[in-house]
Amino acid sequence: MQQAIAKNQLKDLVSDTEKEFSRVDLTLFGRYMLENHQEFPCQIFDMSPGSAAMITPVSGAVGERVVAYVDHLGRIEGNILRLFGGGFAMSVKATTSKRDKLAAKLTWLANRHELNLPEDRRHERIAPRSRAGVIRLEDGRVYQTKIVDLSLSGAALELSVKPAIGTVLWLGNMRGRVVRQFDEGVAIEFAIVQTRNSLEGFLGA
C-alpha cells in the first residue's frame, strides 16, 4: 500500500499542527489499533486538538493510519507523524466542531487535579496481600513504600517523601507518574494499563 503521507509532508504537518493548536500535558490511558488490526494499550502524555504523543509497546511506520480509543475522549484517528523512543506522535483528524469540543475537554482534563476534582476511578481498587513495595525515581533514588490500594491503572502509596505531581517513578517494574498528593503519600497512574496477571506477578496481589 502506498504511504498516505510523504515524510517531508509529515514534517510540515507536525510544524503546522504545533503552531495551530495549544498542547497540554496530561495522562490518559487507552488502546490503539494499527493497520494490521493489532491492538495494544497506550498512554497519551501530550495532546492538542490536532495531534497526540503517546507511550506505546509497539510503534507502526511513519504515515501509518492509527485508530485509538482513549479514556474520556472516545475514538480518535489519524496518521503516525513521527517516532520516538517508547512511542510515537499521531495526527488527530476531526471536523472544526469536534476540534472545538476536544479543546474544551483537554483543558478540563489537564486542570482537573489543580481544581481538586475527584480522582478518576475507572478501574476497581484492590488491596494487595503484600503491601510492602519499593519505588525508584528517575535519578536512581529508591524508597520503601506501603501500597494502600492499587488497580490496573494506578496505585495509592504511603511514603516518607512526597514526589511532586508529574514525577515519573517505577513501582516494581511498572512505570508511572504522580498525579495526586495526600497526607500519607501519593497516588500514581501507570504508564500502561496493567493486567491482573502483571499485578499478581509484581506485587503479589
Mind telling me which CATH architecture of the largest domain this is? Beta Barrel
Taking the alpha carbons of the first and last residues, their distance comes to 46 Å
Assess the beta-strand content as a share of residues. 35-45%
What's the mean pLDDT score? 78
Low-confidence stretches: 1-19, 115-119
CATH class descriptor name of the largest domain = Mainly Beta
User: In total, how many domains does the architecture comprise?
Assistant: 2
Helix and strand sequence: HEEEEEEHEEEEEEH
- CATH fold type of the largest domain: Thrombin, subunit H
**Major β-sheet profile:** 6 strands, antiparallel, barrel
Full CATH superfamily name of the largest domain? predicted glycosyltransferase like domains
- The secondary structure category is alpha+beta
Oligomer: single chain
| Rg result | 18 Å
> What's the helical proportion of residues?
10-25%
Note down, in words, how this protein is organized:
This protein has 205 residues and is α+β, with helices and mostly antiparallel strands. It has two domains: 7-111, Beta Barrel (Thrombin, subunit H), CATH 2.40.10; 132-203. It is 19% helix and 42% strand. A six-stranded antiparallel β-barrel has the order 1-2-3-6-5-4. The protein is globular, with a radius of gyration of 18 Å.
What labels describe this entry?
2 domains; six-stranded antiparallel β-barrel; six-stranded antiparallel beta barrel; Thrombin, subunit H; 42% strand; alpha+beta
Give a short overview.
The protein is an alpha+beta fold and 205 residues long. It has helices spanning 7-20, 96-111, 196-203, and strands spanning 24-33, 39-48, 51-55, 65-70, 74-84, 87-91, 132-137, 142-150, 154-158, 168-171, 174-182, 185-190.
